[in-house]
Specification:
alpha/beta, Isopropylmalate Dehydrogenase, seven-stranded mixed sheet, 12 helices, 12 strands
């Protein structure tokens, strides 16, 4: 039975939300077990208070004395806190052949740094990338890769992102030929900076990649694309802008509803539509972002993850493990002659 490691003490609402989210995931889906890392006494109290029943046999608790916080330097914390819930969890992923995935809602920097240092990159991957999957207006999904792990990128990095993202969307959503685009300042072939222009030429030559050209940030959620390739700086700005806009729009709608009786009646009539919109925009309903390019599956849930978020992210991780995603990426990378596409230095 495959194992998934859960950093029980990572996140603003840990350990209560993380442990309960793990229990909820086990209840919803069989075929996997959990390793919960953190302070065993606290974790066991939460487990004992929950109605676990038969799933208790699928839970293993790994006692850890330390916790890495958001305020700490990721590199320093990873090196000095060897007995933290995060580092111990990554060690399980690296050393236990049955452990196929790791999930944490803890410090993003620490998770990404720890994954790279403790688990290691897939051979041929220049840089791993953080890649959330976002809901589109056409009721589909789109991956934004990278959204913050690599602020400065070389062309080879973005080409690797395209290969990894395309494999993920194929494995997880069954999209036969995922449409891959580059985030740019226009859709014309000649648009973009020096980085995106070189990547544009390279992606046109990669076999197995359904490259459809440049795209603008306004079309991220349009449903026209399946994978959007970007450097981490631009991708993070794009993602945070969309998050801020969605919150602002909902606030404006709620303020507008209160302005008149007519607005209140209209809001009442539109209540099912507004509830559906809020659910679509709620990160708690969408799970976590995958960190692609390391020798194991790493999923980073939102820092304010609730029980529902943790459950959803664990089920994502299980699906990716069952789809043998790491091996698929490894095979795809090995089949491409990157050196003749872009300079790999």
């Amino acid at each position: 039975m495959l194992k998934i490691v859960l950093d029980a003490f990572g996140g603003d609402n840990a350990p209560e939300a993380t442990v309960r989210g793990g229990i909820a995931a086990l209840k919803e889906s069989d075929g996997f077990s959990l390793v919960l890392t953190g302070k065993a006494e606290t974790i066991n109290k939460i487990i004992d208070a929950a109605d676990c029943g038969d799933i208790r046999s699928r839970i293993e608790v790994a006692d850890c004395s330390e916790v890495i916080t958001n305020e700490e330097s990721p590199t320093v914390a990873i090196r000095k806190k060897a007995d933290s819930s995060l580092v111990v969890g990554l060690k399980y992923l690296k050393e236990d052949p049955d452990c196929k995935a790791f999930v944490s809602a803890g410090s993003t920097g620490a998770v990404l740094t720890g994954a790279t240092l403790k688990v290691g990159r897939i051979k041929g991957v220049s840089r791993p990338a953080l890649a959330p999957v976002l809901p589109t207006v056409s009721d589909g999904n789109v991956m934004l890769i990278d959204c913050g792990a690599n602020a400065d990128c070389k062309p080879i990095n973005l080409v690797h992102f395209a290969v990894m993202g395309s494999n993920y969307m194929n494995a997880m959503f069954g999209i036969e030929r995922p449409r891959v685009a580059i985030l740019s300042n226009g859709t014309e072939d000649h648009k973009g900076n020096m980085l995106t222009q070189e990547v544009f030429g390279a992606l046109k030559s990669v076999e197995g990649i359904n490259f459809v050209g440049n795209m603008e940030a306004r079309d991220v959620l349009s449903g026209k694309y399946d994978v959007i390739v970007s450097d981490g700086f631009s991708g993070n700005v794009c993602l945070k802008s969309m998050e801020g806009m969605s919150v602002s729009m909902m606030n404006l709608i709620m303020r507008g509803v209160k302005t008149s009786l007519r607005a209140k009646i209209g809001a009442w009539l539109l209540k099912p539509v507004l509830k559906g919109l809020m659910k679509k925009l709620d990160y708690n309903s969408n799970g976590g972002a995958v960190f692609l390019g390391v020798e194991g599956l790493i999923f980073k849930a939102h820092g304010a993850a609730t029980e529902k978020t943790v459950k959803k992210t664990l089920l994502q991780a299980k699906a990716a493990a069952e789809g043998d995603l790491v091996e698929r990426i490894r095979t795809s990378l090995a089949s491409v002659d990157f050196e003749n596409l872009v300079k790999a230095e």
